[in-house]
């Protein structure tokens, strides 16, 4: 028995009838065709499927599409600017060689976007803790941490923080 | 013909990333075709059982189900899983793509179900009922070798798959002359490769053309095509294999799996696209595992403390069946067992053993991390026995740079080496002498500070075809299109290593073009000449050389055209730079690169005897392997109360020959070291006595996470290889090869004052705590 849901995905309003058991990640990938959100484990342990739901980093393999009814969702495809320019976190990942196979990258980037919205100037230890829910098998994390530091500096220059 | 080096050697950010950071990479599971069906597998819950019957009626009639297939239904339509490795006296152990009357490991596929969507598929998989008669399983290697142990294969009563020996030098004499003999036994535990992207296959059959296209998350698209053609008994010309974006492999996708053949077969049978996506659970159970070896070493030590000879006995747990290279991997351990030392006599006796587990096969390093771990751990052990500093003991046994090419007792010829260079640099960077001082102070305070060294040499750029199971060359085509843009078709199949960038760097410099004028195509067997693939740290050294050779030929041709255009009589004087081709004698005698290229295609005024067009293909056969080397140093402190290890510093000095892109080299090194750190402290594939994989999910199989890892300090020395014109040796596996012994040696060194001499990996706090407790109890006992 399908259920009507209405969600905003990357700024676009979407209305769909979905099965109650449909996972949010399958909704994004199979229904909306947004395949940048990857599936690495379906048990919320790897973080590859991380998206932003109302600004919060959420593992979309452990959320049902019906639970997202009314929410605003950002996937990796929605992160670049309207002109196609990369988000500072995306740019920092590229500059710092923070990815190899690229499979964990979208989830990693969205986790970082949320972290930097919350903590504009995180320490290395804070960065490493914030990434604890996202596995990467290629990079050894070192360049990911460097990318986060680089992106944080870039974002702070863009929006000077008031004390 | 001089070239300007604008790109080679520089940290050029990757061209791949533009799509990957946007989530626009297209991995197999991202591909959808109209009318696509979903494939799934019913898998054995038993490690060993007879199949009495399979009831599929309920599943067949379930909503959305299109087909259910068992071995009976196949009736032999698909051949067994191929094994390319040939070892004399190897006993056969063919794996059917679906188990027929017997299952031999937990996770073995028993039935295939095809349904219209993912959810209907999962429901239907639950409805297949298999009637099993459980049989005794044999899970541990050593138990498998006992008399009367259950047999994995009825026809092989001792569970031995093969025996393999290697001998060089006069070992008997070495032991006769030995002042003392030091023995040491070690294990290298079973690991799960766990690429982030699970395996996936999409197959599509076009009946009109009788053409089958298979997209697979693989490291070897061409070899897969050949093997699938054989398994399905189809002409290879009817098959196309595409490896699109591949989300990591580490050797686990250097294979041919039942699921690939079944997806292809079913797409053809049903005339509909069929997709299979592995779940993480399946990935743990039924994608190859790595390592799982035991080694006993005996060193013959001369009067002056020199190693005169080494006898190694190796046992490798192969699992129940052979996958593509299963039996070959432990032989690489044998070949590299003497490491980077002058050991004049060596004998290796290797026994491959069947158990009721998933097959082992190539996992990052593939036999060499095991060899390096064994010899490097043993070097520390022997040095401790002799009461010598482990650094000095190593230093004394390095061959000198002038001894290269260096012939080993195991029959290899190490190309170039200056082992002392990275070794001394590593000691300097870490401050070795000062650290030993600090260690003495710390020990006086009861603190457990440890310093661990590892000097490695690895065998890379696999390899000369004479030493490989199925071709060790690599192919390339370089095609300059009429507009002057360059297309590179490579037989390599990178899956995260960044060769779209490093190959483009080589080509751009050869033609004096901007990087963006070069694009690299890989992974599509319809587009590229037959190739071997990406594994064994071969892609740059072997695949890159094939590309380089193509560039040389095209430069020669373009130089002749350009020379004629500018009136230079000697084409060898033509220089390619900044989008121009000009005479070295007179820079004004120049023509733009694009104009010369256009001339090759317009072909009205070509030099006599020159063919039109600009395309070159080269199949490069390397004359030898390459042998990169390096030294890693780890500094740890062990908490005496809890057994927890804090990694204080990690210094890696690697020499992989000439570096094309230092950004990518460091990325490979650091990533590999962290995988090693996983093996040392966290990872182990644990089966219980019934053959159930207890670490069958990410919940139970711990992997390094960002917070578990310190900053790794990387440095390099550069000793080019003469084996290929690039001078590059390969670096993809160095991190997993060099790092495990450095870390374990550091922990054992920390515990040495308590009398701990050795610990097997993984060094979880509990294992260390038990060792600490036992050591203290022994001391108390000793004092009484």
Span between termini of chain A: 52 Å
Structural class of chain B: alpha+beta
* Strand line-up across the major sheet of chain B: 3-5-1-12-9-10-11
Strand content of chain A: 15-25%
Overall shape of chain B: it is globular
Could you state the order of secondary-structure elements of chain A as H and E? Answer: EEHEEEHHHH
Envelope shape of chain A = globular
Verbal overview:
The complex is a heterodimer of chains A (about 160) and B (about 775). In chain A, helix 2 (about 90-95) crosses helix 5. Chain A starts with a strand and ends in a 5-residue tail after the last helix. Chain A is of the alpha+beta class and about 160 residues long. Helix content of chain A is about 35%, strand content about 15%. Chain B is of the alpha+beta class and about 775 residues long. In chain B, the strands form 7 sheets. Chain B has a 7-stranded mixed sheet with strand order 3-5-1-12-9-10-11, with helices on both faces. In chain B, strands 7-15-14-13-8 form a 5-stranded mixed sheet. Chain B has a 4-stranded mixed sheet with strand order 18-26-27-28, sandwiched between helices. In chain B, strand 22 (about 575) and strand 23 form a beta hairpin. In chain B, helix 15 (about 500-510) packs parallel to helix 16. The chains are: A alpha+beta (about 160), B alpha+beta (about 775).
Topology summary:
The complex is a heterodimer of chains A (163) and B (784).
Chain A: E1 3-9, E2 12-18, H1 24-31, E3 50-53, E4 56-59, E5 72-74, H2 88-95, H3 105-118, H4 124-130, H5 142-158
Parallel strand pairs in A: 1-5
Antiparallel strand pairs in A: 1-2, 3-4, 3-5
Chain B: H1 17-20, E1 37-43, E2 49-55, H2 57-60, E3 65-70, H3 71-74, E4 102-103, E5 109-115, H4 118-125, E6 129-134, H5 141-144, E7 160-168, H6 171-177, E8 180-191, E9 200-206, E10 211-216, H7 221-232, E11 239-242, H8 258-270, E12 274-277, H9 280-286, E13 290-301, E14 307-319, H10 329-335, E15 345-354, H11 368-386, H12 390-397, E16 406-407, E17 413-414, H13 420-430, H14 432-444, E18 448-457, E19 474-480, E20 486-490, H15 499-511, E21 518-522, H16 539-566, E22 574-577, E23 580-583, E24 590-592, H17 593-602, E25 615-620, E26 629-638, E27 645-655, H18 662-681, E28 713-716, H19 734-751, H20 765-783
Parallel strand pairs in B: 1-12, 10-11, 14-15, 20-21, 27-28
Antiparallel strand pairs in B: 1-5, 2-4, 2-6, 3-5, 7-15, 8-13, 9-10, 9-12, 13-14, 16-17, 18-26, 19-20, 19-25, 22-23, 23-24, 26-27
């Amino acid at each position: 028995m399908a259920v009507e849901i209405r969600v905003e995905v990357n700024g676009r309003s979407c209305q769909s009838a979905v099965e109650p058991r449909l996972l949010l990640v399958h909704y994004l990938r199979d229904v909306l065709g947004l395949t940048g959100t990857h599936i690495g484990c379906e048990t919320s342990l790897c973080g590859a499927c991380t998206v932003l739901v109302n600004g919060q980093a959420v593992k979309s393999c452990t959320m049902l599409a019906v639970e997202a009814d009314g929410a605003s969702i950002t996937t990796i495809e929605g992160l670049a600017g309207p002109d196609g320019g990369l988000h500072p976190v995306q740019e920092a990942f590229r500059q710092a060689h923070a990815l190899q196979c690229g499979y964990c990258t979208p989830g990693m980037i969205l986790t970082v976007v949320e972290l930097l919205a919350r903590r504009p100037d995180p320490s290395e230890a804070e960065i490493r803790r914030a990434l604890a829910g996202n596995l990467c098998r290629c990079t050894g994390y070192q360049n990911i941490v460097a990318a986060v530091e680089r992106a944080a500096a870039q974002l702070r220059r863009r929006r000077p923080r008031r004390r | 013909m001089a070239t300007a080096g604008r790109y080679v050697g520089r940290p050029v950010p990757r061209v791949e990333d533009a799509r990957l950071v946007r989530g626009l990479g297209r991995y197999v599971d991202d591909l959808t075709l109209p009318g696509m069906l979903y494939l799934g597998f019913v898998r054995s819950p038993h490690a060993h059982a007879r199949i009495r019957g399979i009831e599929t009626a309920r599943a067949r009639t379930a909503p959305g189900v299109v087909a259910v297939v068992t071995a009976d239904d196949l009736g032999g339509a698909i051949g067994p899983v191929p094994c390319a490795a040939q070892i004399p006296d190897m006993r056969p152990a063919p794996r059917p793509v679906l188990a027929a009357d017997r299952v031999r490991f937990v996770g073995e596929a028993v039935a295939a179900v095809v349904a219209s969507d993912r959810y209907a598929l999962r429901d239907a998989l639950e409805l297949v009922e298999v009637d099993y008669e459980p049989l005794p399983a044999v899970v541990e290697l050593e138990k498998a070798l006992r008399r009367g142990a259950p047999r994995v294969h009825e026809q092989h009563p001792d569970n031995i798959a093969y025996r393999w020996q290697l001998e060089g030098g006069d070992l008997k004499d070495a032991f006769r002359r030995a002042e003392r003999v030091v023995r040491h036994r070690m294990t290298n535990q079973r690991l799960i490769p766990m690429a982030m992207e699970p395996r996936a296959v999409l197959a599509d059959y076009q009946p009109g053309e009788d053409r089958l296209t298979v997209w697979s998350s693989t490291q070897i698209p061409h070899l897969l095509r050949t093997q699938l053609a054989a398994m399905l008994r189809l002409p290879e010309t009817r098959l196309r294999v595409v490896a699109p974006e591949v989300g990591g492999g580490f050797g686990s996708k250097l294979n041919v799996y039942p699921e690939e053949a079944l997806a292809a077969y079913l797409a053809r049978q049903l005339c509909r696209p069929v997709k299979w996506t592995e779940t993480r659970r399946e990935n743990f159970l039924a994608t190859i595992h790595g390592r799982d070896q035991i080694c006993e070493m005996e060193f013959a030590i001369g009067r002056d403390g020199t190693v005169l000879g080494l006898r190694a006995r190796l046992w490798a747990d192969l699992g129940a069946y052979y996958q593509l290279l299963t039996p070959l991997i432990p032989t690489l351990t044998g070949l590299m067992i003497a490491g980077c030392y002058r050991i004049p006599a060596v004998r290796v006796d290797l026994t491959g053993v069947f158990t009721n587990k998933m097959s082992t096969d190539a996992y990052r390093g593939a036999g060499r991390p095991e060899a390096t771990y064994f010899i490097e751990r043993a070097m520390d052990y022997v040095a401790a026995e002799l009461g010598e500093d482990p650094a000095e003991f190593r230093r004394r046994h390095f061959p000198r740079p002038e001894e290269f090419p260096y012939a080993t007792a195991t029959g290899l010829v190490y190309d170039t080496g200056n082992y002392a260079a990275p070794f001394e640099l590593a000691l300097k960077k870490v401050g070795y002498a000062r650290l030993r001082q600090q260690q003495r102070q710390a020990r006086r305070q009861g603190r457990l500070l440890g310093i661990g060294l590892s000097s490695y040499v690895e065998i890379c750029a696999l390899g000369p075809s004479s030493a490989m199971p199925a071709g060790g060359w690599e192919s390339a085509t370089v095609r300059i299109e009429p507009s002057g843009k360059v297309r590179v078709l490579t037989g390599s199949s990178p899956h995260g290593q960044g060769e779209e960038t490093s190959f483009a760097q080589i080509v751009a410099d050869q033609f004096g073009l901007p990087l963006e004028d070069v694009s690299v195509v890989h992974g599509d067997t319809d587009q590229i000449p037959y190739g071997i693939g990406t594994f064994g740290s071969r892609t740059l050294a072997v695949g890159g050389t094939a590309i380089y050779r193509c560039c040389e030929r095209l430069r020669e041709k373009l130089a002749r055209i350009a020379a004629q255009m500018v009136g230079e009589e000697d084409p060898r004087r033509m220089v390619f730079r900044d989008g121009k081709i000009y005479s070295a004698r007179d820079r004004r005698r120049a023509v733009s690169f694009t104009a010369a290229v256009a001339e090759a295609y317009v072909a009205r005024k070509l030099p006599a005897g020159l063919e039109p067009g600009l395309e070159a293909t080269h199949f490069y056969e390397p004359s030898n392997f390459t042998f990169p080397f390096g030294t890693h140093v780890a500094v740890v402190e062990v908490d005496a109360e809890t057994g927890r290890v804090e990694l204080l510093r990690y210094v890696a000095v690697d020499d992989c020959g000439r570096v094309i892109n230092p950004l990518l080299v460091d990325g490979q090194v650091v990533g590999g070291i962290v995988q090693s750190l996983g093996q040392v402290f966290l990872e182990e594939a644990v089966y219980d006595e019934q053959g159930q994989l207890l670490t069958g999910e990410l919940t139970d199989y711990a992997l390094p996470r960002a917070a578990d890892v310190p900053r790794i300090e990387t440095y390099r020395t550069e000793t080019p290889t003469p084996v290929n014109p690039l001078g590059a040796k390969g670096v993809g596996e160095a991190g997993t090869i060099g790092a495990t012994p450095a870390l374990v040696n550091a922990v054992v060194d920390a515990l040495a004052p308590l009398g701990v001499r050795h610990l097997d990996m993984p060094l979880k706090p509990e294992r260390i705590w038990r060792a600490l407790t036992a050591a203290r109890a022994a001391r108390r006992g000793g004092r009484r």
